[in-house]
Amino acid sequence: MSGSRLSGPAAASGSRAPSSRAERAAALDLTVARLLNIGTLFSVALLAVGVVLMATSGQSPLDPDFPPLDLARLPADLLALRPEGFLWLGLIAVILTPITRVIVSLAGFVRDGDRTMVLISVLILCVIAASVVISTLIR
After folding, report:
1. What is the distance between the alpha carbons of residues 136 and 125, in angstroms, rounded to a whole number?
2. What's the CA gap between 11 and 15, in Å, rounded?
3. What is the pLDDT of residues 38-73, one digit of tens each?
4. Could you give the angle at the alpha carbon of 41 between the alpha carbons of 38 and 43, nearest 5°?
5. pTM score, two decimals?
6. Where are the domains of the chain?
7. With contact defined as beta carbons under 8 Å apart, do 74 and 88 qualify?
8. What one-character-per-residue DSSP string does 72-138 give?
9. What is the pLDDT of residues 66-98, one digit of tens each?
10. Sequence-ordered list of residues with C-beta below 8 angstroms from that of 55, at least 6 positions apart, any chain
């Protein structure tokens, strides 16, 4: 025998590409799980750094002079180790993690030809986009 045939999540970590629909679905599930895990850990780490920096500097996020989100200022805040830079980036990562999950899932559904799930994923992204547009108009 030339080797055993892997299935499920084991196939996703093997050297060969998943061939059956079930194997591709398992590989997609594993990819999404890893993405969510990494995104969550990254977000929590950024927020923790921001909280520690804020505590050591005596600042409070409830202070009236706490800077609002300014994407142009974010790199300078991070390089200067200002707590607000880490807190804002952590919040952005928290928001982008599930959005990225939908995009990765959408790509997997397109690859598999699952039209129903492609439609659902596109509709979810449309709802997210609409909420962003509406929130910017309400300001």
Report:
1. 17
2. 8
3. 999 999 999 999 999 999 998 887 788 888 889 999
4. 105
5. 0.75
6. 19-138
7. yes
8. TTHHHHHHTT-HHHHHHHHHHHHHHHHHHHHHHHHHHHHHHT-HHHHHHHHHHHHHHHHHHHHHHHH
9. 888 899 999 999 999 999 999 999 999 999 999
10. none
